[in-house]
Amino acid sequence: xxxxxxxxxxxxxxxxxxxxxxxxxxxxxxxxxxxxxxxxxxxxxxxxxxxxxxxxxxxxxxxxxxxxxxxxxxxxxxxxxxxxxxxxxxxxxxxxxxxxxxxxxxxxxxxxxxxxxxxxxxxxxxxxxxxxxxxxxxxxxxxxxxxxxxxxxxxxxxxxxxxxxxxxxxxxxxxxxxxxxxxxxxxxxxxxxxxxxxxxxxxxxxxxxxxxxxxxxxxxxxxxxxxxxxxxxxxxxxxxxxxxxxxxxxxxxxxxxxxxxxxxxxxxxxxxxxxxxxxxxxxxxxxxxxxxxxxxxxxxxxxxxxxxxxxxxxxxxxxxxxxxxxxxxxxxxxxxxxxxxxxxxxxxxxxxxxxxxxxxxxxxxxxxxxxxxxxxxxxxxxxxxxxxxxxxxxxxxxxxxxxxxxxxxxxxxxxxxxxxxxxxxxxxxxxxxxxxxxxxxxxxxxxxxxxxxxxxxxxxxxxxxxxxxxxxxxxxxxxxxxxxxxxxxxxxxxxxxxxxxxxxxxxxxxxxxxxxxxxxxxxxxxxxxxxxxxxxxxxxxxxxxxxxxxxxxxxxxxxxxxxxxxxxxxxxxxxxxxxxxxxxxxxxxxxxxxxxxxxxxxxxxxxxxxxxxxxxxxxxxxxxxxxxxxxxxxxxxxxxxxxxxxxxxxxxxxxxxxxxxxxxxxxxxxxxxxxxxxxxxx
Length: 682
Prior knowledge:
This protein is an alpha+beta fold. Among the domains are: 525-615, Sandwich (Immunoglobulin-like), CATH 2.60.40; 617-656, no CATH class. The chain has 16 helices and 34 strands. The chain has a six-stranded antiparallel β-sheet, with no helix packed on it. Strands 19-20-24-28-27 form a five-stranded mixed β-sheet. It has a four-stranded antiparallel β-sheet with strand order 15-7-6-18. The two termini are 30 Å apart. Residues 1-90 have low confidence and may be disordered.
């Protein structure tokens, strides 16, 4: 069970939240969805399979539910939200796996964060039927309002529903949770319904969805090119999970459709922006202009997903059209006009090095696309371009915390969660590809700003709402129906150093950041031909070994072997190697390094490898928009940050006094181990 001290000092994690009786009475359905109650000291867990509605009946009822109704779960008095393992299910959507009880350190566990994230990923969907469109996400969430509300936006259905569709299988692989699986499947069925010629996924235009013109007016269905790239990645995740060949056919058709609608200029292709619906969207019936956009800021963003999706599908399927699509768009993305444009000395060839200035998320997402294609064709120059771009991107913001600005070269810009997610995705991909060793970076980003920008404390959110101005809900675009309960586990739009200002979510951040959780979790340990590798000293249960991390309380990591003959453990740079001790069972093992990895050989099943080392405490001062901040760290984990802002309408972060203890608290949990991973397309 997550203790009150977990990463938050005295903060209680995801306290029970129980809806008011009238809300429960208004709800049309009762399914597996945890209530929470604003009572200190209470904790909730998933209720398992105790639904009062059959799956078939649930789907029938939600298909006709009214706008704004919400899906609730009956929970027992003894239920606990985070710690209890979900039952292992044979139903479609839950990967095969096993579970077992264990006593483990009560420290950062990404599988638990994934279980929380599933509540938001499924809770923020709108079950209302609007001319066939169902389970569209409420894209915006504002906690700094009374009542808290969430609302639809023109970017929800076209580009962000696909992100959620990719994240959900990943979170289930991590946690084994079957929470609101019916909702997930119903959402994907609704999305697949709008795949139309030439094989693209369209946002359906209807007067029942007036917000689809939030960005630009539209009178037709439109297929956003970035959203289709994310749909390819989503369908790849589903294909890996259930092996349904229908996904392969849909993906092949979508790749061919994107190749067909791209404007070919010989050695490169691009997508126009006809300003129909969301930016860079293909109107049903064909392009209206065919001109290259002069808005480079959005050009970066909306082209960036194509090479990543195309290259990933080529590697998985061997489809040559996917490789050609990736090549043409990559060639467009690396043109000099897309890079540079910053004040650097003349002898630094900024554009050739992947240096940039401007919107952080779009540029780093472009680097991720370039790297994906580079790995597919083993292009060393493009790999180097992506690495240079990553290292330059890291100079912005506060990398020791994983804090990166939404926009560079502007004062007082906050950190968008998408920026952290992109840096984790790029760092893990570079490291896996052997282009660099950036696991220390991943560790810093995940343990600090990524973890803090996931909202998990209902009391703090309730306090933010109570101290914010009253508003009138604009239904059906907006809803105030159990907004806090439904968004626990989501990732905020903006974060500062000690608070999440005017706390709100844009759910692109939830989609991207949940995938960053998966990239880090999958990268913790890998296994091949009897050899295991441990890249991150974080908790993880895997078929080949389990990792119990006592950090940052104690310099202790326990590896419980299951089937590895040897283990290579990456030791962080901050560890004093001369003070590192390694034991296998009761015997000391020699400390032998290969690069950054400690080698432990000759292992048998059930051997326990224990690593111990001092955890250095460090005080770091840095400038942030003209103000001096002081961070106290244990290893790579921030345990205190000052000065603190105390805005009543902001969720406070880095409340980590509990991490100053010298002994890690323990908890009893049921660990889940998946039998099937999803290849990270980071």
